[in-house]
Amino acid sequence: MTIFSEILNLKNVFLSFSGLLLLCFLSYLVSLLVHRSHSSQVRTSIVLSDIRTALNAKKQCQYCNKELSSSYKLKIHERVHTGEKPYSCDQCGKAFVTSTELKRHHRVHSEEKPYSCEQCGKAFVTSTELKRHQRVHSEEKPYSCDQCGKTLKSVEGLNLHIRNHSGAKPHHCQECGSAFLSKGDLNSHYRRFHSGEKPYSCEQCDKAFVTSTELKHHQRVHSEEKPYSCEQCGKAFVLSTELKRHQRVHSGEKPFSCDQCGKAFSRSCSLKSHFLIHTGEKPYHCDECGKDFARLENLKSHKRIHSGEKPYQCRHCEKTFTSSGNCNNHERIHTGLKPYRCEKCGKRFTQIGQLTIHRNIHTKERIYPCEQCGKIFCRSFSLRRHERIHTGEKPCARKKVQIMSENIPISTDLLNT
Question: Which CATH superfamily is 266-403 part of?
């Protein structure tokens, strides 16, 4: 109620006064109403201030004490603890915490990718994925780690990287208790080892995969796309990790070393295979001939000896091979390519095995021990030649006898004597 409206309501009182008395009364009334109005404004401002403070106050999670800026964000966050996922997909039944996640998921079924890169045309489901992809072209890495200085392209990648320093693994599997750095790793683990779910299937061969990344990598088998190429030798790869591993051939980097003998390797799988030399373990067994192998890849290649299968054909001639490695080595006969270079003397080789043997000339490293006497050799064929001293085998004499028996007829009289 305004001052003016209250004065009008008191018009009957005004009529009972006259002259100076009326002026005094009006002066008192106005000052009183002004005071009341001012007090009301002050009270109102205090109430509004209290409301703003309450609205701006951070809300605390009752499960982990994390503070969030709004009641809505708190509600969404607490679903992480409760496991509540109220939004489910009509097509596949997958459930989500928020309606936004469900809408984004619907694009998986509709194959809608509304966000496309202007530089390469690649399309994405979300604008966040597009922004992250655009940094591939700009090579921008705006997020840096305070502990080691490493720069990353996304804040999500930075958060995951920081956990490598802290050792934090906040996502736990309810089935087996295993802990993981990210929720994505946890989901992949659950599908791979517990549910067996493979939601990503290839349209060309119907092969199914646990993650969308595995499906994308597999699809390059059909498209023959190899987007990652080596600047030194031109060899192309399906995965960036394969390229990084290959580049160690040129740089000579060997980050994986054996705890028992100190030998270093460029690949972790090579170290695991090497370690079996110390343990003597050969877990992969051939059912046809009984031969044991330290690596599964070696067993698969070996089985093709029995089956006669040679699935890898040379692109320059009709010769076929049991393994892709042998095929690649053979093709270099046609191309003359020698991608493996010695960092000491610059000599180049067709095969990495040749380079490894050659490096022993510089390092004087001896890696092939004799089980009988303990003598060590730089090359495997030198070891085999040495072992004949212990076995008494004379292959040259055996070959001569074989040739003579095949070409010279033996008299029956000699046999009868």
Answer: Classic Zinc Finger (3.30.160.60)
